[in-house]
Amino acid sequence: MKRIGLIDIGSNTVRLVLFEYTQETGLKELQNIKTPARLARFLDADNVMAEEGINNLLAILKSFQQISDKYGVEEIHPVATAAIRQSVNVADILERAKSEIDMDIKVITGKEEAYYGYHAVVHTISNMDAVTIDIGGGSTELTFFENKELVHSVSLPFGVVTLNTMFFQGKDHNDEEALEKTQKYVKDQLKSVKWLSKRKVPILAIGGSARNIARIHQSSINYPIAGVHGYSMDRHDLQDVYDLLEGTKPDDLDDIDGLSKDRSDIILPSSIVFKSLYDIVKADEFKFSRKGLREGLAMSIISEDYPAAFNKYHIFRDSLIELSNDFHIQMEEGRKRQQIAERVSHELEKFDFISLNKHEKYLMKNAAHIFSLGSFIDRDASSQHTYYLISNSNINGIVHKDRVRLALLASFKNKTLLHFFAEDTGWFDTEDLDSMQALGSILKFANALNVSQTDIVQDLYLEKSGDGMCLTVKYKGDPIAEEYQTVRQKKHIEKIMDKDLEVRFVEA
Asked: Global pTM?
């Protein structure tokens, strides 16, 4: 186990994130605290950080140091970005941090900042090719990766705080002239990045401004599940959020659900950047990553002690294993359920009772691993807890709609509950629900065939038996629990076949 603290000293906010890594449950966030510092505003025309800004920073760092001590953090890694990077008195700031609070601040370059954002994204989102953007307070980092390998990166000399300072001083957030000037400046800056134009790939957005845009959109459409990581919008959606922000009076901004109070005056500039980037890239999707600089840096630090900790090509698999470990699902239990579910589905396909595509098999296999996960909380209400936990958990490497499909399969109890849970989102038609009912039925039956968790099933096969079917289960050990449960649950398989099913247990 390793426990570290990351302090992200940005131009707009200073944030402390405490991480714990174990090989079983992966990288977990223990605490996340931020405070608005607006350090960029303490830089004068000559880029000298004012004494007030330095004192504010040191007070925040001292407080974060005390919090980290209470959590038993082994290492604190403070990193500074644009505001400190641009300060001509940066050496004085670093010396005072060391002498007054014994903290070594690392000032990272724009290229390093871009790299850590990319590093976090490719390890938590499944897209193989994309442009990433991270708008900070004083700089904007862009990368392009292909097959998950970094190809290009750049740090541009503007952020939401600097845009606000350049164009909105003494003006309302939606001042028409300021918005026009911002748009022209941003487009010119983005066009100067020659490798960016017409990439025709998704854009993956990182950082607080991006999260706010996503949350505003989710609130405006009453999005039914939690989380912005992996949330996807298109150009029309971005325009809708921009129109909402532009059309809202300054005094009413606090009434917009999803908008953080400390970002209300700087959110429109970031919206302009996102729209402009979408058009220049000719993007086909705008997706949000909750993971960025801090997570990318944390992964790099953890990897020094645990080289195999993170695999950018097995994101979903690793995230699912970590989730199952969180809820104490034994690895062998999950694997056995996967094996049995695959055998049952194959036998049903052999007799043309079902026809599953590759994606359906993939979801069923993974749902088998975490089937009835909610029994960890309450066995009697396992289905309800399973659906809620999975549909609202941050599972890396999977789109939100498939996350809900996974939740519906892993929580399957009967048709009534399936339809009840599915109404929560309203995302699935009758054909989808029929397919998930068949897959859920297979999982419930597979679970019954290893209900004792003693791994008795060695093999199984289906045969015709008069007007019905017979499933022969070869076992080793004592099948008493499995015999009882399969008799109770075979009705689910009978509905798929529309035939009676006899289950015979034969000693292997």
From this structure: 0.91
